[in-house]
Write a structure and sequence with these properties.
With 231 residues, this protein is of the alpha+beta class. The protein is built from seven helices and six strands. Helix content is 35%, strand content 16%. The relative contact order is 0.16. The chain binds 2-acetamido-2-deoxy-beta-D-glucopyranose (5 copies). It comes from Prunus webbii.
Length: 231
């Protein structure tokens, strides 16, 4: 009798211990943000070499970020396997060179390493390193944001402006889920002139397993009621 109850105690204690580890450990996220950037906007005010040249005129991957509903900036820098270049096949590597270049410094592998170590490790239980990069590349191919916007006549223009909802609607029409737009402040705002902001990133949201797309919540991103330029 005594033995049985002490065994039960040990089992219970172990269960609590596991719960404790799981609740305080890493990889606590609810959904993914798949973030694509518009390189010319990335390069504005960048201190890196890209600001000196006209950069790539297509949306490219910034990252796939496991995120928390209550704080979209977390988790990050979780415990997990460090980036290992060996785990990227030459084939995957050449795909990522197109979809996920380091537009600021040209150090592609350094960029991938940084994104995996900061974000990817936090969802390693769902996507291992190879799956993390494969899945991101697939998403980039599957939803060509450059093409979607072009088809809706949203193309780079020096003076034209759009409303937040114009751009969201164009993307939603094809992806069938609500994206989140991130903007940069206008670097050349003139006092007294109408304010505007620059389209910088388009975020698509995916559920926990990164298989299905879901609506993004407008938690952050472009400012409300300020027109958007795309250039
Ligand atoms: C999300 O963040 C909140 C607040 O920091 C935390 O209490 C919660 O456990 C997190 N959710 C997940 C699934 O990690
Ligand atoms: C990672 O693990 C180390 C040691 O196991 C611990 O000290 C650290 O707090 C952990 N970091 C995170 C973000 O959980
Ligand atoms: C995405 O669309 C743009 C504009 O139509 C096109 O130039 C580009 O090749 C497309 N990218 C892929 C991977 O299909
Ligand atoms: C282009 O736009 C038309 C209507 O505006 C829409 O029916 C079509 O699905 C779009 N195609 C792509 C590839 O964006
Ligand atoms: C958006 O917010 C609702 C309500 O708080 C929540 O149920 C939903 O999961 C959130 N979705 C995302 C992608 O953050």
């Amino acid at each position: 009798m005594l033995k049985l109850s002490s065994l039960a105690f040990v089992v219970l204690a172990f269960a609590f211990f596991l719960c404790f580890i799981m609740s305080t450990g890493d990889g606590s996220y609810n959904y993914f943000q798949f973030v694509q950037q518009w390189p010319p906007a990335t390069c504005i005010r960048s201190t890196k070499p890209c600001s000196k040249q006209r950069s790539l005129p297509i949306f490219t991957i910034h990252g796939l970020w496991p995120s928390n509903y209550s704080n979209p900036k977390t988790p990050s820098n979780c415990n997990g396997s460090q980036f290992d270049a060996i785990k990227l096949s030459p084939r995957l590597r050449s795909k990522l060179k197109r979809s996920w270049p380091d537009v600021e410094s040209g150090n592609d592998e350094g960029f991938w390493e940084g994104e995996w170590n900061k974000h990817g490790k936090c969802s390693e239980q769902t996507l291992n390193q190879m799956q993390y990069f494969e899945r991101s590349h697939e998403m980039w191919i599957f939803h060509n944001i450059t093409k979607i916007l072009k088809n809706a006549s949203i193309v780079p223009h020096p003076t034209k402006t759009w409303k937040y909802t114009d751009i969201v609607s164009a993307i939603k029409a094809l992806t069938r889920t609500t994206p989140l737009l991130r903007c940069k402040r206008n670097p050349a705002q003139v006092k007294g002139q109408p304010q505007f902001q620059l389209l910088h990133e388009v975020v698509l949201c995916l559920e926990y397993k990164a298989l299905k797309q879901i609506d993004c919540n407008r938690t952050a991103g472009c400012r409300n009621n300020v027109d958007i330029k795309f250039q």
